[in-house]
């Protein structure tokens, strides 16, 4: 019986995670995220707010994820609608984050205020 390398196992487990989160969806289409309070989804939303703050010298404070969609690509795109506190008031933002956990890669693609 052959041995499975650690990196091969990590890639396999990451792909299983992506399929579980996407409901088995194929690459391309956006699928609704069934639970916007999921720990991993919230982690990605907090990352988006922090990255936006770092890039724009803002001081938004993460509130919550209102809803979101995910898209299987060569990783996963997350389009999240988040509430964040800005100067004492809550505003809604839409953000897209690209996530490729098996390469420890996470990138903020866009972050815009919903008007």
UniProtKB/TrEMBL annotation:
SMART domains found in the cross-reference section: CY
Keywords: Protease inhibitor, Signal, Thiol protease inhibitor
InterPro entries: Cystatin_dom, Cystatin_sf, Prot_inh_cystat_CS
Organism whose genome encodes this protein: Lithospermum erythrorhizon
Cystatin domain mapped to chain residues: 25-114
Pfam families cross-referenced by the UniProt entry: SQAPI
CDD domains from the UniProt entry: CY (cd00042)
GO molecular function: cysteine-type endopeptidase inhibitor activity
Protein's name in the database: Cystatin domain-containing protein
Signal peptide: 1-27
């Amino acid at each position: 019986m052959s041995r499975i390398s650690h990196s091969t196992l990590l890639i396999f487990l990451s792909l299983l995670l992506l399929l579980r989160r996407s409901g088995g969806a194929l690459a391309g289409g956006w699928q609704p995220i069934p639970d916007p309070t999921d720990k991993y989804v919230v982690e990605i939303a907090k990352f988006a707010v922090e990255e936006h703050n770092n890039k724009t010298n803002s001081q938004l404070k993460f509130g919550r994820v209102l809803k979101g969609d995910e898209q299987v690509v060569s990783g996963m795109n997350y389009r999240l609608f988040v509430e964040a506190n800005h100067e004492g008031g809550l505003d809604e933002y839409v953000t897209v984050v690209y996530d490729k956990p098996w390469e420890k890669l996470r990138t903020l693609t866009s972050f815009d205020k919903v008007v």
